[in-house]
Amino acid sequence: MQRGRREWVGPREPSLYTVKAVFILDNDGNRLLSKYYDPELYPSMKEQKNFEMNVFNKTHKADNEIAFLEGMTIVYKSSIDLFFYVVGSAQENELMLMSVLNCLFESLSQILRKNVERRCLLDNMEGVFLVVDEIIDGGVILESDPQQVLQKVNYRADENPLSEQSVAQ
């Protein structure tokens, strides 16, 4: 019988499922968009909204780009009256999460013609959801280049607004 022998536990196996959630809140902490990719993380709407409010309370006055809360790594960015959040597990690479956040922000900035604010976001929600779905699918990062995302959602800054393109196709 061997005593005192411990088995070495190395780093976690890498996973493609890097993003746990993405959400956009207004400057009062109200949800404008949210997508949770891990059904076990916050299964109910109430739990999701509590988590979002906790994150908002911790981050809305902070001048950082990253937070750690409830065992999650959270990267975030604000613009005028919006807060953008990308959530990963505690072991997740912050740079990967930040690349998703930057891609989301830059893509939306193009679609909203640099007016990244609440009213414009709400007026273009179908385009916002298309962008999120092109960047992340089920928690897997598909794309982190804003130009590729815009190409995939068939967006052209000099043509019709996104909603008119979707109907015309």
UniProtKB/TrEMBL annotation:
Membrane topology, from the record: Peripheral membrane protein
Keywords, alphabetical: Cytoplasm, Cytoplasmic vesicle, ER-Golgi transport, Golgi apparatus, Membrane, Protein transport, Transport
Cited InterPro entries: AP_mu_sigma_su, Coatomer_zeta, Longin-like_dom_sf
Family annotation (CDD domains): Zeta-COP
Superkingdom of this protein's organism: Eukaryota
One Pfam family named in its UniProt record: Clat_adaptor_s
Keyword Phosphoprotein: no
Domain AP complex mu/sigma subunit: 18-156
Compartments, record wording: Cytoplasm; Golgi apparatus membrane; Cytoplasmic vesicle, COPI-coated vesicle membrane
GO BP annotations listed: intra-Golgi vesicle-mediated transport; intracellular protein transport; retrograde vesicle-mediated transport, Golgi to endoplasmic reticulum
Main location: cytoplasm
GO cellular component, one term: Golgi membrane
SUPFAM superfamilies associated with the record: SNARE-like
PANTHER family: COATOMER SUBUNIT ZETA-2, ZETA-COAT PROTEIN
Function: The coatomer is a cytosolic protein complex that binds to dilysine motifs and reversibly associates with Golgi non-clathrin-coated vesicles, which further mediate biosynthetic protein transport from the ER, via the Golgi up to the trans Golgi network. Coatomer complex is required for budding from Golgi membranes, and is essential for the retrograde Golgi-to-ER transport of dilysine-tagged proteins. The zeta subunit may be involved in regulating the coat assembly and, hence, the rate of biosynthetic protein transport due to its association-dissociation properties with the coatomer complex.
Oligomeric form and interacting partners: Oligomeric complex that consists of at least the alpha, beta, beta', gamma, delta, epsilon and zeta subunits.
Family: Belongs to the adaptor complexes small subunit family.
Protein name (Swiss-Prot/TrEMBL): Coatomer subunit zeta
Organism: Etheostoma spectabile (orangethroat darter)
